[in-house]
Design a protein that fits this description.
The protein is α+β, with helices and mostly antiparallel strands. The protein is built from four helices and eight strands, in the order E-H-H-E-E-E-H-E-H-E-E-E. Keywords: Acyltransferase, Transferase.
Length: 155
């Protein structure tokens, strides 16, 4: 396992504007990490549906290291989706840092409950960050997933 000292220097948490250059980098990163290994690609309609979502990332210079999207269901409820960390940088704390900063951003907006659909292989990662399994396994994008939630304050 890599140590935190292997992390790129000067990593910045940033909001990502839909259709920006960094957003296009996020599509490429998500494709490489989440879709390409499954032989899948994003459709135009899937990407167009992200217009109303929040997007965040971790940048080192102009390079996107990690990204995530957020759907706001209501002023107090959100769903984390499409979390991806560059495969060469996984295990170095960048994903944990990104998710922690996103949670702070959502909490500042009044979000109290966050849900996500975790790939089975990522359940331990999310559990270490305080998420709890709240559903039975199901298949999404050809892989087993589990619904998980985290309460920021009492729901």
């Amino acid at each position: 396992m890599s140590s935190e000292s292997d992390r790129p220097v000067s990593i910045q948490f940033v909001p990502i504007e839909f259709q920006s250059d960094v957003y296009r980098q996020s599509i490429a990163l998500r494709h490489a990490v989440l879709r390409q290994p499954l032989g899948l690609a994003y459709s135009e309609s899937q990407l167009a549906a992200e217009h109303d979502q929040l997007h965040f990332g971790m940048l080192s210079g102009n390079q996107l290291l990690a990204c995530v999207s957020v759907m706001l269901f209501s002023p107090s409820e959100a769903k984390i989706r499409q979390m991806a960390v560059d495969a060469a940088l996984q295990g170095r704390g960048i994903g944990s840092d990104l998710l922690g900063r996103v949670e702070l951003e959502l909490k500042s907006r009044g979000v109290q409950c966050i849900e996500l659909h975790a790939r089975e292989v990522a359940v331990g990662f999310y559990e270490r960050l305080g998420y709890m399994v709240t559903g039975e396994p199901f298949t999404e994008v050809t892989l087993p997933h589990i619904k998980m939630t985290k309460t920021m304050v009492t729901c």
